[in-house]
Amino acid sequence: MLIGINGEFVRHSDKSFEYAVEAAARMGYEAYEPVLIDGRDLFSEAGYYHGISMDEDALYYKDFIESRGLRISGVSAHAPLMRPDVGVPFLRRAIRFAYQLGAPVVNTDEGLRPKWMGEEEAFQIMKYSLTVILQTAERYGIYIGIEPHNEFTTNPKTMERILELVDSPFLRVNFDTGNSYLSGHDPYEALKAVAHKVVHVHAKDIGGTLLDEKGKVYGTPVGVACGEGVIDWEKVMLILKEAGYKGVLSVECGTEEQAQKSLEYLKNLRRKLGLGV
């Protein structure tokens, strides 16, 4: 297993994509997961946000990341499956961008369900969205990693139903440990249920004031340093090992200090478990 990081660790310090990649490389991370945005963003343009625009040249980003000795684990491209007018064009574009970038997976979730939409209607709309999106994903050989992040994906039963909406080997899971825990479900049982379909992992630990949110929310953008929260990382890594997972643990935390601590903790645990690269 490789230890990677999502660019969110510099968001609160208002740093750029270039800064995030160089910081990750300097710390010793092995992979990087960029966040994709559509169109232009004032903060990104000014160097205050790490998101990268799909209007730009994907090969520039690819070269920049790889020249720092990092692999590209995937892209974070969250768009609502229950809003096909938004989610379908965004994710199809993200697939094409990921292909040029050399990223094997596009990570997303179902989004927030509109108040006017019933549950059965939601699943029919998600089926339509995934059918169209996966036609593009299959052509480009890019996985779609559905992440536990909202009401249907954090519930193991409805997550399983989503994964059965379309019969495609490219419909997989980006498992987020922290979101699963906060939703109130057992994150280890939830992971076991989908481990055979996991293609990417968001390594997110939960601690501090976030603990008060358990059972009240479906997720959080970032967690605390891995090893300083409630997630049993040894159990997580052993479940993944048993399932044959050889991908990336992409850390999602809020500061550079937490990023450094997470890397040291996960590398030591990986060595202990004999999961080194």
From TrEMBL:
Query: SUPFAM superfamilies, from UniProt?
Result: Xylose isomerase-like (SSF51658)
The entry's keywords: Isomerase
Q: Molecular function terms in GO for this entry?
A: isomerase activity
Q: Which residues form the signal peptide?
A: none
Q: Which InterPro entries match?
A: IolE/XylAMocC-like, Xyl_isomerase-like_sf, Xyl_isomerase-like_TIM-brl
From the record, give the transmembrane residue ranges. none
- UniProt superkingdom: Bacteria
Xylose isomerase-like TIM barrel domain sequence ranges: 21-268
* Entry-linked Pfam families: AP_endonuc_2
The name this protein carries in UniProt is Sugar phosphate isomerase/epimerase
Species, as recorded:
Candidatus Caldatribacterium saccharofermentans
